[in-house]
Structure formats: C-alpha cells, structure tokens
C-alpha cells in the first residue's frame, strides 16, 4: 500500500513513517520543515521513505503528489497553545486552510481511500465533570478572578459546588477553548464533510492526548509540556509547574500513537469516526514533572499562576479505540517517562 503522510518528518509523523516502513508499505512524506518545530533538517529520517520538502498549502503540486496513493495520513499542523493570540492567522493557515487545500486536491483526484486525521483531545475543552446534585454538567470558562485567587477547579454551573472530573468518551460535547483547539475541531468537520460527499472514503479522526517521547522538539512554545520539563532538567533548572500541579491529563507514548495511526490505515475493517488515543489512566502535571526528575536534579517548582486558554482536567476513555480500532496503549506511564528522561529530543542532523 502507498501511504502519503503530511508532516511525516515531525515528532509523531516520523514514528508513523518508521512503523509503516517496517511493515513493508511504500511511504511518501510531504513536510515543509516549519521552523517553529524544526531547527534545520531533523536527524533520524527513515532512508526507506520518500520525502518532498514543500508546504501542504502549495495546491499546484498535489495532482503529482497524489498519484498512486492508497491512503492519506494527515499529521501536518501547528500545535500547542503557542505564544499568544497573535498566532491565530498562522494556526488557521497551517491547520484549517492547509486541510482545505489537501481535501480539494483529494476531490480533484477522486480519492476514495482512507484518510486518517491527527486530531486532539483539545476539542473537548474542559473535560467531563460530575456534580453530586446535578449529574454530568458543562462548566463555563474559568474566570480570571478565580485563577488569580488560586481557585483552579471549575465549579458546578448550577450550584457552584465541587465537581468530580471523569473520563471523556468520544460522543461527549465538544467545546474548544483556545485557537489551536478551534482549528482542530474545524479540521475534523472539514474531513467529515469530505467523507459524506465521497462515498467509499473513510475518515478516522484520532484525538491524541498528551503525547511524549523521542524526537519531541525542545525549547519552543509549540512543544508539549513533557518536552519543556525535560529541557529544564537538562539545563539544571527546576521545571515550572503552573497552577498547583493538580491538572489531570493522559500521557501517551509516541510509539503507541504511531501504532494507532497504522491500525487506522491498515486494519482490514475501517475505523469510522473519532477515537481517543490515550492510555485510559490519568496522571497530574506534577506527577509527570516528578517522574522526569533524575538524581541530582532540582525538584519541580509549583509556581501557581495560569495560562489563558488552558483547561483544568481532560482525560479520556480508551474503550472505543480498544473495541473498534484494536488499539490499547502498550507503554506504561512509569516505563515511558523513565525512557524519556534520556531519549533524544529533536536536533539538527549531522
């Protein structure tokens, strides 16, 4: 099978390339080496894959690039909270407009294969919460006054009481609360629209939770929190943990995420719809900071404060991915974090 991977030189994409190549698939990568994620040519590119260094938004090249392609794995995106709202046009351009250009090209070439989209748990916004009195409720945005006062937990919108966070299933309401999250939900909608209008095409949206592992980009506001903490330890500094460190997330190893993509691309039975890609076992941000600490390193520093657009808790149910995609994360939090303390982060190729 010939698989085209956008963003296939990136953190997650490069691991997908490796697994596809190992399975004997013809693997073709389109990547523009965005400097927000790459400091030059990345090390570790798979020599058995074919690479084209160009922007997904370059519409004129797509008829040639799509020749003979059986499946598309769309990983190219601008990720993370970024610097501030000034990033909005770049997020929309690299995520939503790029996806629209790709889908137009698929339409023009009458593509009806599998399309796997890298989506994200950020589409849920705040996760799922249960009030003892009012059941499952949808908390409103956290107020700046509450955050500045150190009141980080969202209250019940009905009674202002305490809430218990719960695992989010795929059919939960979607409530993106920052620019990046809004673009990821738009990507899902665009791909679903393509699927509805092109019988035979199957779209699988993989909602990644907090991905970590080898080849993460270092020292960039677009990297994941695991990379930021790891980089701080390498500099001999204490990682700064916002709020009280009690934010709950599901940390999933990049090798597991790559395997979920390969299953979606190659399973005999297609997996239609959205799937959480997670371990099913949440940990706090402080748990992660402590797990990455090595002997002699300073302890993590809980600094309070907050980031506008961030959410308190989001972790997920892994049941649908297990039953319909055949995916279960194989790498435990403890083993994965232990490996990540010494794994290579993204660097310039020799």
- Strand proportion, as a percent range, falls in 15-25%
Largest sheet: spatial strand order: 3-2-1-4-5-9-14
The best one-word shape is: globular
> On the 0-100 scale, what is the average pLDDT?
94
| Sheet having the most strands | 7 strands, parallel
Secondary structural class: alpha/beta
End-to-end distance: 32 Å
Helix content range: 25-40%
Compute the number of helices.
10
Number of strands: 16
- Please write the string of helix (H) and strand (E) elements: EHEEHEHEEEHEHEEHEEEHEEHEHH
State the low-pLDDT regions, or none.
none
Computed CA radius of gyration, to the nearest angstrom:
20 Å
3D structure, described in words:
The chain is built from ten helices and 16 strands. The chain starts with a strand and ends in a 10-residue tail after the last helix. It is globular and about 55 Å long. It is an alpha/beta fold and 350 residues long. α1 (11-22) crosses α7 and α3 packs parallel to α5. Helices cover 30% and strands 19% of the residues. Strands 3-2-1-4-5-9-14 form a seven-stranded parallel sheet, sandwiched between helices. Strands 7-6-8 form a three-stranded antiparallel sheet, with no helix packed on it. Strands 10-13 form a two-stranded parallel ribbon.
Layout of strands and helices, then pairs:
Elements: E1 2-6, H1 11-22, E2 26-31, E3 50-53, H2 62-65, E4 71-74, H3 88-108, E5 114-120, E6 128-131, E7 135-137, H4 144-148, E8 164-166, H5 179-197, E9 202-208, E10 210-212, H6 225-234, E11 240-242, E12 248-249, E13 251-253, H7 254-266, E14 273-277, E15 283-284, H8 285-291, E16 301-304, H9 319-325, H10 333-340
Parallel strand pairs: 1-2, 1-4, 2-3, 4-5, 5-9, 9-14, 10-13, 11-16
Antiparallel strand pairs: 6-7, 6-8, 12-15
Helix pairs in contact: 1-7, 3-5
């Amino acid at each position: 099978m010939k698989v085209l991977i956008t963003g296939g030189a990136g953190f997650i994409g490069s691991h997908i390339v490796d697994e596809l190549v190992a399975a004997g698939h013809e693997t073709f990568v389109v990547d523009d080496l965005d400097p927000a994620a790459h400091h030059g040519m990345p090390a570790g590119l798979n020599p058995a894959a074919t690479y084209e260094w160009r922007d997904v938004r370059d519409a004129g090249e797509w008829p040639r690039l799509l020749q003979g392609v059986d499946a598309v794995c769309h990983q190219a995106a601008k990720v993370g909270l970024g610097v501030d709202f000034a990033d909005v046009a770049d997020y929309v351009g690299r995520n939503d407009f790029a996806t629209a250009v790709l889908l137009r090209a698929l339409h023009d070439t009458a593509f009806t294969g599998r399309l796997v989209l890298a989506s994200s748990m950020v589409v849920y916004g705040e996760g799922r919460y249960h009030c003892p009195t009012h059941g499952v409720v949808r908390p409103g945005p956290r107020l700046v006054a509450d955050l500045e006062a150190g009141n980080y937990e969202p209250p019940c919108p009905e009674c202002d009481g305490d809430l218990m966070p719960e695992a989010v299933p795929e059919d939960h309401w979607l409530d993106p609360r920052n620019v990046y999250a809004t673009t990821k939900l738009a990507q899902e909608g665009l791909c679903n629209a393509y699927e509805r209008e092109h019988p035979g095409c199957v779209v699988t949206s993989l909602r990644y939770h907090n991905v970590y592992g080898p080849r993460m980009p270092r020292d960039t506001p677009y990297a994941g929190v695991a990379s930021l903490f790891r980089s701080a330890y390498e500099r001999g500094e204490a990682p700064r943990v916002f709020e009280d460190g009690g934010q709950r997330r599901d940390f999933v190893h990049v090798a597991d995420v790559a395997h979920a993509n390969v299953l979606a691309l190659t399973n005999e039975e297609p997996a239609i719809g959205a799937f959480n890609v997670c371990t099913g076992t949440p940990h706090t941000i402080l748990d992660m900071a402590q797990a990455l600490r090595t002997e002699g390193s300073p302890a993590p520093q809980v600094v309070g404060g907050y980031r506008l657009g961030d959410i308190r808790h989001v972790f997920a149910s892994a049941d649908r991915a297990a039953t319909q995609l055949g995916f279960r994360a194989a790498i435990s939090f403890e083993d994965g974090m232990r490996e990540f303390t010494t794994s290579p982060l993204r660097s310039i190729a020799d």
